[in-house]
Amino acid sequence: MSIKVLIVDDHHIVRRGLVFFLKTQKDIAVVGEAANGAEAVQLVMEHQPDLVIMDLVMPVMDGIEATKKMKERSPKTKILILTSFADQDHVIPAIRAGASGYQLKDIEPDHLVAVIRSIHRGESELHTKVIPHVMNHLHYQEPANKIEELTKREKEVLAEIAKGKSNKEIAASLMITEKTVKTHVSNILAKLGLADRTQAALYAVKHLGL
After folding, report:
1. pTM to 2 decimal places
2. Residues in CB range of 150: below 8 A, 6 or more apart
3. Which are the contacts of 182, defined by CB distance < 8 A and separation ≥ 6?
4. pLDDT tens string for the chain (210 positions)?
5. Residue 64 to residues 13, 33, 71, 78, 110, Cα–Cα distance (Å)
6. What burial class does residue 111 get, using C-beta atoms within 10 Å of its C-beta: 0-12 exposed, 13-18 middle, 19+ buried?
7. Per-residue 3-state assignment (H helix, E strand, C coil) for the chain
8. What does the alpha-carbon distance between residue 27 and residue 117 come to, in Å, rounded to a whole number?
9. Which sign, positive or negative, has the C-alpha torsion 46, 48, 49, 52?
10. Cα–Cα distance measured from residue 19 to residue 5, given in angstroms and rounded to the nearest whole number
11. Which residue in 146, 60, 47, 140 sits closest to 96, CA to CA?
């Protein structure tokens, strides 16, 4: 089944570009467009998309407020922030509002598709520029430093996760299979007592000195 996507951006040309590109992907279906957060919330209720690509700075209702309302009314809908802002004043409120991903508008098209698929699978996808902000301002109980329990290869995979790479990209970079990468990721999370890739990325930044 296709991933149902709603695109939210106040710039018409940005929306049109995203629609045009995403329509070339067989597993993605664009179900609607909105020029502001208020329109987007209404469309989410109508279409129940799997994922919303959300701009932050918009008239009527901004992306932060829209994300909050969407998560309240349609908890299963995932939100991917796509913006030009990488500062903590935008990043932290977006993550706290319930966004599953945060990427910048200079993202390569193929990477954007990989991020959409990853978030749809239940993973989190943060641009490397925003990870330090999340690390400093989101409060979660950090596990003890167990980095030395990882094998050399697991440390390499962890470093790649911190760069925001997908399993496919990690596999290509390390010249191993995607299935092997998935196994390493599972082992890393288990050994370090982490819940997901986002926590793994934060952990790597701190304990691998990235």
Report:
1. 0.65
2. 158, 188, 191, 192
3. 167
4. 799 999 999 999 999 999 999 999 999 999 999 999 999 999 999 999 999 999 999 999 999 999 999 999 999 999 999 999 988 788 888 988 899 999 999 999 999 999 999 999 988 888 888 877 776 654 444 555 688 889 999 999 999 998 888 899 999 999 999 999 999 999 999 898 887 888 888 888 888 876
5. 22, 17, 11, 14, 26
6. middle
7. CCEEEEEECCCHHHHHHHHHHHCCCCCEEEEEEECCHHHHHHHHHHHCCCEEEECCCCCCCCHHHHHHHHHHHCCCCEEEEEECCCCHHHHHHHHHHCCCEEEECCCCHHHHHHHHHHHHCCCCEECCCCHHHHHHHCCCCCCCCCHHHCCHHHHHHHHHHHCCCCHHHHHHHHCCCHHHHHHHHHHHHHHHCCCCHHHHHHHHHHHCCC
8. 9
9. positive
10. 10
11. 140
Q: Which two tokens stand for residue 64?
A: 């932060």
- Which residue has tokens 């990989």? 114
Q: Label the pairing between strands 51-54 and 125-126.
A: unpaired
